[in-house]
Amino acid sequence: PSSPRCWAVSSGDSVPMLCALGAEITLVSSEGERTLPLAELFQDDGIEYLSKRPDEILTTLSIPAPTGERTAFWKLRRRGSIDYGVLSVAAAGWCNGNTTDRIEIWLGSVGSTPVRCKESIAALIGKPLDDDTIAHASSLARKAAGASPLGNTDFLPQWRGKMIEKYVEAVLREVAGLPRQRMAPQHPL
Fold first, then answer.
1. Looking at residue 1, what is its pLDDT?
2. How many Cβ atoms are within 10 Å of 15's Cβ, its own excluded?
3. What DSSP designation does 134 have?
4. Which of 12, 52, 137, 166 has the highest count of CB atoms within 10 angstroms of its CB?
5. How many other C-beta atoms are found inside a 10 Å radius of the C-beta of residue 117?
6. Tens digit of pLDDT for each residue in 34-73?
7. How do residues 92-131 score in pLDDT, each as one tens digit?
């Protein structure tokens, strides 16, 4: 209530995965059209949260054709059925043998925009996706710029921050083809 700005959380389930896959959008107005990465549609402003102008219409969402990537998506929510996510993690990885050539890791529901885990990505490029590199990249994801869970749910923000690390680890293990983790997290209320 005392903040000079409006805070809102971007909690669209599909957006982090679409960003990880490199999706682009086309916006059309009477002045013409422009194409941009989907991630650039979102702004860190709770009121003006889209970079789309009022006279523009989103006409196209383009997802690049698959090129051998492995993908994974995990969502944390209060209930197991339909519910808003309080954290979502999406990853798409392109590996050549044991080497990670390219990887994208995106978070949702922890900031005003989808969050790209740049430091985690940098830590994995040119390395194998194994237990050690995954653990390191997961710990970096918790500190990703823009990944600041708000106190907008009955889960403590600190606990949700810890879940960023756990969920990124689970998603990366799935992308790597490692045994899948089973989680039944205990959370303080």
1. 53
2. 22
3. H
4. 137
5. 28
6. 999 999 999 988 888 899 999 999 999 999 999 999 999 9
7. 999 988 899 999 999 998 888 999 999 999 999 999 999 9
Q: Determine contact, residues 131/83, Cβ cutoff 8 Å.
A: no
Round the average pLDDT of the chain to a whole number and report it: 89
Domain ranges of the chain: 70-176
Token reading at 42: 């979102």
Where do we find the tokens 């389930």? 13
Closest of 64, 74, 70, 66 to residue 16, by C-alpha: 74
In the chain, the amino acid numbered 149 is: P
List Cβ neighbours of 15 (8 Å cut-off, separation of 6 or more): 38, 42, 106, 108, 114
3-class secondary structure, 123: helix
- 3-class SS of residue 159: helix
